[in-house]
Amino acid sequence: MFKTVEQTAADIGMPEHQVLQYIYAGRIKAVHDGEHFLINSAQFDTYHQQLERIKEEIEIWKNTPIPEDVDIKDED
């Protein structure tokens, strides 16, 4: 499915001007139809999968209790 620069920017949470810079730099592949750039949204599937995996790993990390240090001794 092809999306416009505006739709792509909203989808990946990036400013439109940055999406255009990435297109000009070749980091985002796009087709120019004479008036607009059209971007195949399938190229961001891996990006979305990695983003979800990272979010899950952060949640696991946040919910993991800190282990008690075995070297700490109560010296009363």
Assembly level: single chain
**String of helices and strands:** EHHEEH
Biggest sheet strand order reads 1-3-2
Number of domains: 1
Number of helices: 3
Mean pLDDT across every amino acid position:
88
End-to-end span in angstroms? 68 Å
What level of helicity do the residues show? 40-55%
Q: Regions with pLDDT < 50 over 5+ consecutive residues? A: none
Assign an overall shape. rod-shaped
| Beta-strand residue percentage | 5-15%
**Structural class, please?**
mainly alpha
What's the count of strands?
3
Radius of gyration from the alpha-carbon trace, in angstroms: 22 Å
Largest sheet: 3 strands, antiparallel
Protein name: DNA binding domain, excisionase family
Report on the structure:
This protein has one domain. With 76 residues, the chain is mainly α. Helix 1 (5-12) crosses helix 2. The model has no long low-confidence stretch (mean pLDDT 88). The longest helix has 19 residues, at 45-63. It has helices at 5-12, 16-25, 45-63; strands spanning 2-3, 30-32, 37-40. The protein starts with a strand and ends in a 13-residue tail after the last helix.
